[in-house]
TrEMBL record:
This is Chitin deacetylase. Residues 1-20 form the signal peptide. One of its GO terms (biological process) is carbohydrate metabolic process. GO terms for molecular function: hydrolase activity. Keywords: Signal. Coiled coil: none annotated. The keyword Repeat does not apply. It comes from the Eukaryota.
Length: 377
């Protein structure tokens, strides 16, 4: 054996363990997976015992559109001035995609106490793109967007923890590997049928959740990484749906409000698994009374003593420490304050022009995949 080969063989032996560190996930049991170790099995039963009605029903309003001025105004009108049963302002989670986003408005949302999370850089509309993307491309999509948000909306990286993949499409283990490489700690992309309302869980062990959307779901062990299942709602035509706009519910303001509040009541009356309601503004364009119906249902919730609108981050905190209603406090997010020196940039994106409002000096080019800082001309 010549020396070069010997070095190669030795190197391979050293590197091997880290390359093979990924293993198929094993079966989860309450003995091998404890919440004290930041581990929870995928399960339809809650983290609490005793009388269901003593515990809060958590609901997260989730948004994944570009944060433009118009969209910001819309969500502001819908969300501001609402409070939870504990008197604190409600929470919500924004999964922010890059293109057309105004990062000054993202900074505003953060300062208002909302959670800022990652959607992707490109928000490519093709499902096949997300199903077949390599891990390194996904790192550029998710890790890159985390960097862009942090830099241009001036939000600390360690406050950006969540991610939703576009079209809710996973590329198997590679999606979670890419999330982890970006220090993201939870996913909100995995829908589950109304008949199987799962609580949030970690990927230390094999998920029992069905993989229904055509992509492949992760089945490697990812210790401490959280999945917040999206509980599907019942659609108008007897099926199920994972965003309010795809449920095809039509009718009067009351019809839409009653449908939505009834969907919340079904879960609230049965297991109190946390609910994620994904809202897209195009729903308001093509379904008459949808915005008024949504508003009316949210108004009704204001009168309840046990339904809390919170961020997804807080859902994980509660599942880890499932306190009763009287001890539950909505995150007041008072520490969540960061300044914004405003820069209005006109940038080049491969020959096209893009306006980008930012809280950092204008970069050389429009930030994009592989160039999140926009500093490579
Ligand atoms: C995920 O990784 C595990 C362990 O390496 C492997 O057995 C499995 O086939 C992978 N799953 C997918 C969907 O690629
Ligand atoms: C992830 O976090 C670790 C530890 O805090 C840090 O060293 C690393 O640079 C971070 N990686 C990314 C891509 O942010
Ligand atoms: C909603 O209606 C569209 C168009 O009619 C249909 O393709 C879709 O499957 C429906 N969605 C659900 C959840 O039933
Ligand atoms: C939930 O329970 C309340 C009180 O028992 C009842 O009035 C309501 O009809 C129930 N709603 C659903 C959707 O199960
Ligand atoms: C929806 O309506 C708003 C306000 O009327 C408009 O600005 C926006 O372009 C419309 N969006 C779509 C997708 O049609």
């Amino acid at each position: 054996m010549n020396r070069l080969m010997l070095i190669a063989v030795t190197l391979a032996a050293i590197l091997a363990p880290s390359f093979c560190a990924s293993e198929p996930a094993g079966t989860c049991t309450p003995d091998n997976c404890k919440i004290e170790d930041n581990c929870r099995c995928s399960s339809g039963s809650g983290p609490f015992e005793g009388d269901l009605t003593e515990y809060p029903q958590l609901v997260t309003l989730a948004f994944d559109e570009a944060v433009t001025d118009d969209i910001y105004g819309l969500w502001n009108d819908l969300l501001l001035s609402r409070s939870n049963p504990d008197g604190n302002p409600i929470g919500a989670t924004f999964f922010v995609p890059h293109e057309y986003t105004n990062y000054q408005r993202v900074n505003d949302l953060y300062n208002l106490g909302f959670e800022i999370a990652v959607h992707s850089v490109s928000k490519n509309p093709l499902q096949s793109y997300w199903r077949t993307a390599s891990e390194s491309l996904l790192e550029q999509e998710f890790g890159g967007q985390k960097q862009i948000i942090s830099k241009f909306a001036n939000i600390p990286e360690d406050h950006i923890l969540g991610v939703r993949t576009p079209q809710l499409q996973f590329a198997g283990n590679d999606s979670i590997l890419a999330y982890r490489a970006a220090n993201l700690t939870y996913d909100s992309s995995w829908p589950t049928l109304p008949s199987k309302p799962l609580f949030p869980y970690t990927l230390d062990y094999l998920s029992t959740q069905e993989c229904n959307l055509g992509g492949s779901c992760p089945n490697e062990a990812f210790p401490g990484f959280w999945v917040l299942p999206i509980l599907d709602l019942h659609s108008a035509d007897g099926g199920w749906c994972n965003t309010l706009s795809s449920c095809n519910v039509t009718g009067s303001v009351d019809d839409i409000a009653n449908w939505l509040c009834n969907e919340i009541d079904i879960v609230r009356n049965s297991t109190r698994a946390p609910l994620t309601l994904s809202v897209n503004s195009y729903w308001f364009n093509f379904t008459e009374n949808s915005l008024a119906g949504l508003t009316k249902c949210l108004d009704t919730l204001q009168e309840s003593k046990d339904v809390f609108l919170v961020t997804q981050k807080q859902v994980i905190e509660w599942v880890s420490n499932p306190v009763k209603i009287e001890d539950f406090k909505t995150d007041d997010a008072e520490d969540q304050q960061t300044n914004c020196n405003q820069y209005n940039c006109l940038l080049d994106k491969g020959g096209e022009k893009r306006y980008m409002k930012a809280c950092a000096p204008c970069p050389a080019v429009y930030p994009w995949l592989g160039n999140p800082n926009g500093d490579k001309p």
